[in-house]
Amino acid sequence: MNRLIRSVLLVAFLLLAMAARAQKITFTPQWTAQSQFAGYYVAQEMGYYKEAGLEVEIVHPSASMSAINLIRSGKSQITTLQLCQAMQIIDEGLPLVNILQTSMNNALVIVSRKDENPIEQKGIRVGTWSVGFDQIAFCMSLKEQLDYKWIPVASNSTLLVSGAIDATLAMSYNEYYLLKQSGVRLTDKNVYRFCDHDYNVQEDGVYMIRKYYEEHRDDARRFAEASRRGWEWAVEHPEETIDIVMRYVTEGEVVTNRPLQRLQLKEILRLQVDRESGKREFRLRPDMVSLANSLMTEGQMLFNEVTYEDLVSE
Amino acid sequence: MKRIIQNYRSSLSRGLSLLAALLASAVFFAALVFMFAQSRRAVKREAMDHASVVLDNTVQRVNTIISRIEGATGNLLWNLTRQLDHKDSMLVYAEAFIRNNPYMQGCSIGFEPYYYKDEGKYFSPYAGYQDDGSIITTVEGSPEYEYFYMDWYQLCKLLDRPAWTDPFLDVDPDFEGSSDMIVSYGMPIKDGQGNYVGTLSADLSLDWLSETISAVKPYPNSYSVMVGRNGTFFVHPDPTKLLYESIFTETLEKDNPDRMALGLAMVNGEEGVQKVKVGGKPCYVFYKPLGNTGWSVGIVCLEKDILGRLNRLRNDVIFIFIVGILLMLLALGRIIRRQLKPLEALAVQTEAIAGGEFSKTLPNDGRKDEIGRLEQSFSNMQHSLVNYIEEMKRTTAAKASIENELKVASDIQMSMVPRIFPPFPERDDIDLFASMTPAKEVGGDLYDFFLYGDSLYFCVGDVSGKGVPASLFMAVTRNLFRIIAQQGYSPKEIANRINNALAVENEQGMFVTMFIGRADLKTGRLEFCNCGHNPPVICVPGEPARFLPIKHVNMALGMIDEIKFHGESVDDVRGWRILIYTDGLTEAENPSYELFGTEHLIEFMNENADQPSRVVIERIQETVELHRSGAIPSDDITLLCLKLL
User: Fold this and answer.
1) How many A/B residue pairs have CB atoms within 8 Å?
2) What is the pTM assigned to this prediction?
């Protein structure tokens, strides 16, 4: 009897110890719920984070609290950022570490209202996000001397179709399809894709504040591995992944629909494949970091160079 | 199938009724198709007019309210621009505005960042209804709600004219009370110098719009939709589509040209009707723009609703049509069969008559139509047939009797000429064979031969004419030859005497050509008298066959009394083959009327000179038969072949 009690107590102690070991961590994608973050939702729903000994809470940003502000405030420990955003933040004095790079290509496009090449329309009014993501576009317009009038907007489709703006920036996985859903005709002519020109700079990656990283290297590694598993599962199970994404979308009351999310996932997964190797590499490319540096320095968006080494963990 | 076709082919009534039914079907069908095409067009036009009127009325009603809002907002703007220096009055204006305009949900008067320096970047006075019906007034704008990036603010600013936004969820984080779906009418606020300073926005709850537009139901299953200028649904019977989907959503993943065309027509502010599939069902969508809002209202009507009655009518008519045709087929079949019944009886009776029952009575129901005439004709034909057959029977009997007599005559005639070969078996110095083939039962040819001591008398003759008269004349001639020749006369003497005997009382003017010969078997000397006959063919050993040279061709016997016949002789004909024949041989015709000819005969004799007489004659007969190739013989053929050894 004593032995039995002792065994039960031992098991209970071990379980408690394991539970105590599971590291609580908050992850904030940089935008509201959508397929752009499918891999993380999958890792959460499939229990990959739990298996890695992490207790992850996914908290989306709100209008009152952006992702980077959640990080700065310490309410969140991990976020996703575009490479250029991350470099700007580092340049502004908050060292970050890229613990997982998902995007291997640039998704930015310019869509013109008229069926004409946006690059050949100087001085037009171009919609941009009031919250950023447009660094490469600014650098490009400066370099090409396009003299665009940038109009920060909350949403671009109504403004574009009504002619309030002549063109707009869009992400090839998100606004591109929203514009298509608004009846905007998208052709080879009126869509300018940055990745097809000299501006193919990687975008989404997973970042931590360097200080936090230094103290939780193992958690970071496990989070990155579990997230990568999530993405790999999403590649194999796109329809089930959309089911998961739609749950997050509904929960977050995001105005979207399944076809849009399906197209977004397809495009996001396409952007994860490196053009040269044809593989999902999940790594920052030093050459793309250099390209981002030179473009942003030229565009006076960086005061100091942010090197590949500044971004990666080692 | 084959059996059915055969069945119809074997019966005139069935065939006729089927043909009539088919023709009637074709005519009815064409008429039906035409009628339905016309009806369909008319019903569609009427339905479209109906739906258009309903749509027009609705649009008119909405437009009235929209105009009222635009007017009221315009008035407020007019007041505002005069009070720009009094920023504190803005909230009062906003509140008064929504109080006085029953359709308004809220009113924002947003200013450009730092327009009022002391207010900083954000200054947007707002008044709006709360859920409990009370009005709240507040000043909006914060880093979390940068109103100047919103559509309601930017649209009229960038367009530099008043503009309606598309519907949106009012998600002001500072003002939790409102998360309704609203649309805003924005007007640019300009200062005294005409510079843009901000946007006056009147918010309109979508509820009343939805109610007004949803109430439009021209048909039981029809419903209304309303889309914004980017195609987003903001009135739709399926609430999950509101804001979340646009009219183009179904075109995102796969091509849907109809939907795309409809969507573009609607967002481009066109008015019209298009046929599209909604949820797999064909529908007509009637659409019309709403004033200057950039929105479009559409009424979706199921095709089966519009054309439902017509389709039901069509199904009924098709049913009646099919049943009617079947009944017609049956009725026609019966009527035609009844009408053609006499024909059937006629066919049976005629068949019996054809089978030999000539006494069978043909039906006669006194009809005057074609069938009556046919019955009459058949009856007449039957009588003629009976008479004809009776006549034929008599004729046949008579003919049979004549034929029988002729057969006897033929036998008698044939018995008149020697027919036993070899004729002189005891003598090996005579190779003689003869044949006589009459063209009819009896002929006018003759031949004869006999031994008188060491002399061989022979003759071949051909009486003018054919048939019985010629045969009688032949019998007389042959008897004269026998009687006279057996007295030992020379051929010319025989000819003289036969001629005299025949010429006496020869009222018919008949005559006979004859070759008369007497061969001395000891010396081989041949005496002959040719009385108008064909010259015989001779084959002298070592020489080609040729005609016997004749110096005196006498007249035929029996023509003129008391004329002198000349005889001729050849010293020694031993070893010669002599063929005496009648002109039936050389004048034998084939179906192309080509004669056997003398050349052919000479050629034949050249080839066969060495054969015995019997073989020569048999072969000649075969050769002539071959030449004739089935043609009916026109003349008697008599052949006599002789060789003295």
Assistant:
1) 92
2) 0.65
Write the CA distances from B323 to A76, B140, B309, B596, integer angstroms.
Answer: 80, 77, 21, 78
Number of domains in chain B: 5
Residue A123 CA to residue A149 CA, distance in Å, equals 6
Domain assignment of residue B577, yes or no: yes
State the residue for tokens 């006279």.
Answer: B484
ipTM of the complex: 0.86
> Is B353 a domain residue?
no
- Find the residue in A nearest to B160 (Cα): A164
Report the chain B residue with the minimal C-alpha distance to residue A177: B252
Do B16 and B99 share a domain, yes or no?
Answer: no
Q: Per-residue pLDDT for B279 more than 90?
A: no
A183, B166: Cβ pair inside 8 Å? no
Q: Which of A63, A155, A180 comes nearest B151 by C-beta?
A: A155
In percent, how much of chain B has pLDDT > 70?
98
Range of the domain at B383: 364-402
Q: What is the pLDDT of residue B62?
A: 85
A209-262 pLDDT, tens digit each: 999 999 999 999 999 999 999 999 999 999 999 999 999 999 998 889 999 999
Question: Which residue of A152, A163, A177 is in closest CB contact with B159?
Answer: A163
Q: Do B171 and A63 touch (CB under 8 A)?
A: yes
Interface of B with A (CB under 8 A): 144-146, 149-151, 154-155, 158-159, 163, 165-166, 169, 171, 173, 228-232, 243-253, 260, 263-264, 267, 294
pLDDT of amino acid B212: 82
CA dist A196 and A20 (Å) reads 49
| Preceding peptide of B422 cis, ω within 30° | yes
Note the pLDDT of residue B177. Answer: 44
Q: Are B468 and B474 in contact (CB under 8 A)?
A: no
